[in-house]
Give the backbone structure.
Amino acid sequence: MLVGIVVVAIVAAVLVVVAVRNNDDDTTTTENTATGTTPATGATIPGATTTRPIVRGGTMVSSTTSTAGALNPATTSNGGVHTNAEAMFNGLLAFDTTDTVVPDLAAGLPTVTDNSDGTQDAVFTLRPGMKWHNGTPITADDVVFTFTQSLLRYHSRTAASMGSALGVQGAGNRATTPADAITMPDGPTGLRVKFHFLFPYAPLLKQMNVTEAPIIPKNVYAHCAVDGGDSTLGNQTAPFCAENLQPVGSGPFKWSTTTPTQITMDKNPNYFKTNLPFLDRLVLLVTTTPDIALQATREQPGSIDAGLPIPGN
């Protein structure tokens, strides 16, 4: 959860550069700040609101201290991987800049039912018409695959907390999820996903974001999850799955190139959120420490636009 809170803080910090992702107004954006200035005098007024036109296009260069390695956030809780990859993925839900839970891949918040036997059901409905970066539809089958073959096996926080609530047995690539724990009421190509918890699961809404539960396409990563009976197969973590280095997601930016010192992502022209993203390209420069990034900015003004990378949500 700490990573998710940091992600929200980063969004607020870089608002002046990239604007709020959930704002699809194509004309202006409004920022509530602790201070503001009057256009006529430049005087500072506590609590003032600043309105400015949205600027579209261009490239944002940010620094990251994480090396350019694996870029599949569903197979790890490693902060470096998530820092570099989250702009290419989405969760079912997200946090807005006020830390409020809002829909992301899901069309709305889940329908939750407390059953008489003490169990709990939560049904999510995906937005219709969404596509992965490779052009294939996003379906309920992708969500079930992500949880059963990735998150509940390799994402340590989600596996540790949600796994017990869903009745998962075992750990790592030997973890198995009960058949009735995550199901598809409308079939694999449908839009509804049902989670059946053994007891009321309080963290649900705040654990379905891109940091704790990024969704990945089954058609890209399924072959890595095939269980071959040894430690090198049936494992989606790096280095066993080559697709981790050239990720396919659903986010506002899609992977373009990776070098030892740079990760480049281009705008997703088919992003399901209207008029987003604002930028055409996002570049992450790998620096050894934040101090190195600051030094580069001082020595070459304009070379780095932000000292922290832009999160997915």
